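Allow me, if you will, to draw on your knowledge of protein folds for a short while. I have a record of one protein: its chain in single-letter code and its fold written as discrete structure tokens. Could you please explain, in whatever detail you think fit, how the structure tokens follow from the sequence? The record follows directly beneath this note:
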Amino acid sequence: MAIVRALRVPLRLRPRFSSLSSIAGSISTLVIGEHEGGAVKAPTLSAVEAAKYLGEGNSVSVLLAGTGSSLQDAAEHAASCHPSISQVIVADSDHFVHHLAEPWARLVQLVQQREGYSHIVTVSNSFGKNVLPRAAALLDVSPITDVVSISGPNQFVRPIYAGNALSTVRYTGNSPCLLSVRSTSFPEPTVAADFRAEKAPISQDSIRKSRYVKLTSQETERPDLGNAKVVVTGGRALKSAENFKMIEKLAEKLGAAVGATRAAVDAGFVPNDLQVGQTGKIVAPELYLAFGVSGAIQHVAGMRDSKVIVAVNKDSDAPIFKVADYGLVGDLFEVIPELLEKLPEK
């Protein structure tokens, strides 16, 4: 049964470091969590799932921050959504509403100074990539990023050379060991039986070096690109933003998310939050449809874990066909309209 509790952290505590090898027999993990709409996000549960592989007897705590009833509902959800979670720490403050990196990194530092975790884990998404390096700097340790496999408390596997090779890394630095994991490599587990636990907020001061300006997001009924089961991606071959709307129409019929190559984003066809690849989002859907995508290694690095890859390109020598399960050599301006005609509305 998970315990949801408040943690009042003093502002002036000196960090206490120790060698990771000296605490290998006593593993405890802090997962930096994200929540939305009163529930923990699926990638956070993937991070909890990854923490299981750090060793036997691992005590996993989830850190949630924000304010209001949504935070309290998310804490209740976190306490019952995964059997590995033994504790939920709630930081209730306006400082954490907009996911600014500086207050979040400071919060992680203060919680670590108080609790002394052996590992701190987050997801390798835009939020994790923003917070983890700052927290690592405050704790004076080196983070290990983009972990796809865990072989124990200090041995990890991560991709290198745009995903063309895997590197096994052994961490020998001071505690804590900071990790970011790819959620696609640690699938979300089955939800455990519901149960309730008492919660309490905490107060939290932090140094504010950034300020919230605004949130810009597109209003769409399509699933989130990072978690979608079907992704339809378009490349530079679509030639214009107007033509890219064919990809969007096809995605709507399939109930899919829309993705794009860096070339399409740089050409201004779509916003950069739809970019798939090494410098964009990492996806692993059940079905990945690529139209007019050449298959550059930077793009392939972001979608190679897809279960089924279908590619349409008029160039029979396009590199995308080397990773595709099914390939069609044809003109996308003929193929997509035919698909739209023959597919049912939704």
